[in-house]
């Protein structure tokens, strides 16, 4: 079984736009992170343009399956989760500068942060939102749901107490 850090780094790669880097690393991802095999096996047999089109349909078509964690706050309730500004501050405290094209609350960025630092606080803080995203991806029938399944399985269960 892979360490959570390996799983988080692999999941971050799987949840980014499918490019040459992802396809080059699929065999390594498959071996290093067995919980992601459903996705990596699918990606390995899916032509790159087809997977890229699917990625855009799933993640770039409005907020229904957004990979921006701030999208998944409960409406009107900002207690849970971390704002992009708080995430940027957290990255800096760990000696990391956020320089990516994406915003700091982009799930692959948060997963990579957790993999590099061992700090799963941002993932745990967004646990309820990750679960909502996981359920939506599962209902949509996309292989990306397997990636969220694996990530969510590493986190504490969602507390439903008021």
Report on this model:
This protein has 162 residues and is an all-alpha fold. It is built from nine helices and no strands. The model is unreliable at 75-80 (pLDDT under 50). This is Nitrate reductase molybdenum cofactor assembly chaperone. InterPro entries: DMSO/NO3_reduct_chaperone (IPR020945), NO3_reductase_chaperone_NarJ (IPR003765), TorD-like_sf (IPR036411). Keywords: Nitrate assimilation.
Task: Give a summary of the structure in a few sentences.
It is built from nine helices and no strands. The chain is mostly helical.
Topology:
Layout: H1 4-14, H2 20-32, H3 37-45, H4 48-59, H5 84-93, H6 107-117, H7 121-125, H8 127-140, H9 144-153
Give keywords.
0% strand, 162 residues, 9 helices, globular, mainly alpha
Task: Tell me the overall shape.
Answer: globular
Major beta sheet summary: none
Find the structural class using helix and strand composition. Answer: mainly alpha
Radius of gyration: 15 Å
Low-confidence stretches: 75-80
Strand content: under 5%
Q: Count every beta strand, where a strand is a DSSP E run of 2 or more residues.
A: 0
Q: Termini, distance in Å?
A: 35 Å
